């Protein structure tokens, strides 16, 4: 099977699973995003591990999973805020666990462990909040599960990635950041952005939680920050001399390879959506 066909089949399955879970509701979102977070943490700690740095893999995954699940349950109003108090001792317990290790460089080990939790958990938590749009076109607040903003986020991200790949393959000449990602070009980046903004217009016709201007601004944020997310992940991989962060997704690599744009763009989109409410 050719790499392109393999990539297309895997990509289609990812899209199908994500869209299905988003439409089916918050319990499916919590389950799917929990799996993505746990697998992503596993990949990150494997990526970060060197002869000098030894992240606390299992404790980090456990703390990260509990952090994500507890916070997301709160976002979906399934638990009260008092249950989040457990997160404070959990995070600091990582420092104590390092005492049991015989590895050198404890500061680097703990730092790598916490960075993984921040890099994976916070963006995935913020994604869950997109299902409660802060603003409607008539400025009315809603508190019920609504999949449209989250779906729109992924549609824009996917179109940006696909558009950048197609345009870059056809006319790409000027390298965006050759040191980090030799294949990424300015032409592809601009092309992906234009496709992304055009898609924002189509989304605005069907999802009226945001108006055309608001969707277009969101598209610009996703296009720019999603591209930077790709470069950040490429930077991590290049620093450890590996091609893919994992092999879980045939044709795509690992979870971090497929969700790199999501991890960097979602905090910026979250901030933008909250500012719309002020």
Task: Please give a structural write-up.
The protein is built from ten helices and two strands, in the order H-H-H-H-H-H-E-E-H-H-H-H. With 278 residues, it is an all-alpha fold. It has a two-stranded antiparallel sheet with strand order 1-2. A hairpin with a 3-residue loop joins strand 1 and strand 2.
Key phrases:
278 residues; mainly alpha; 3% strand; globular
- Overall pLDDT: 87
| Helical stretch tally | 10
Largest sheet at a glance? 2 strands, antiparallel
**Which quaternary structure do these chains form?**
single chain
> Widest sheet: strand order?
1-2
3D shape: globular
Quick description:
This protein has 278 residues and is an all-alpha fold. The protein contains 10 helices and 2 strands.
List the helices and strands and how they pair.
Layout: H1 3-24, H2 26-48, H3 57-75, H4 87-97, H5 106-129, H6 148-171, E1 175-177, E2 181-185, H7 186-206, H8 212-239, H9 255-258, H10 260-275
Antiparallel strand pairs: 1-2
Helix pairs in contact: 1-2, 2-3, 2-5, 3-4, 3-5, 5-10, 6-7, 6-8, 7-8, 8-10
């Amino acid at each position: 099977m050719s790499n392109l066909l393999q990539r297309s089949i895997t990509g289609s399955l990812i899209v199908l699973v994500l869209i299905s879970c988003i439409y089916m509701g918050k319990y499916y979102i919590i389950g799917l995003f929990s799996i993505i977070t746990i697998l992503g943490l596993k990949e990150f700690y494997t990526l970060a591990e060197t002869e000098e740095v030894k992240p606390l893999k299992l404790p980090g995954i456990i703390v990260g999973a509990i952090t994500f699940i507890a916070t997301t349950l709160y976002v979906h109003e399934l638990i009260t805020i008092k249950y989040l108090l457990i997160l404070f001792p959990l995070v600091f317990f990582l420092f104590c666990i390092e005492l049991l290790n015989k590895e050198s460089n404890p500061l680097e080990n703990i730092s790598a462990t916490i960075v993984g939790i921040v890099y994976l958990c916070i963006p995935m938590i913020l994604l869950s909040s997109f299902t409660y749009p802060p603003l409607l076109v008539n400025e009315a607040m809603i508190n019920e599960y609504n999949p449209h903003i989250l779906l729109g986020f992924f549609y824009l991200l996917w179109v940006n990635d696909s558009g950048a790949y197609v345009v870059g393959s056809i006319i790409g000449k000027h390298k965006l950041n050759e040191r980090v990602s030799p294949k990424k070009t300015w032409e592809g980046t601009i092309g992906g952005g234009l496709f992304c903004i055009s898609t924002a217009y189509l989304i605005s016709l069907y999802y009226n939680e945001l108006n055309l201007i608001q969707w277009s601004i969101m598209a610009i944020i996703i296009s720019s920050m999603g591209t930077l997310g790709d470069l950040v992940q490429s930077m991590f991989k290049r620093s450890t001399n590996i091609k893919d962060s994992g092999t879980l997704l045939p044709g795509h690599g690992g979870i971090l390879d497929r969700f790199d744009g999501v991890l960097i763009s979602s905090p910026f989109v979250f901030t933008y959506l909250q500012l719309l409410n002020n």
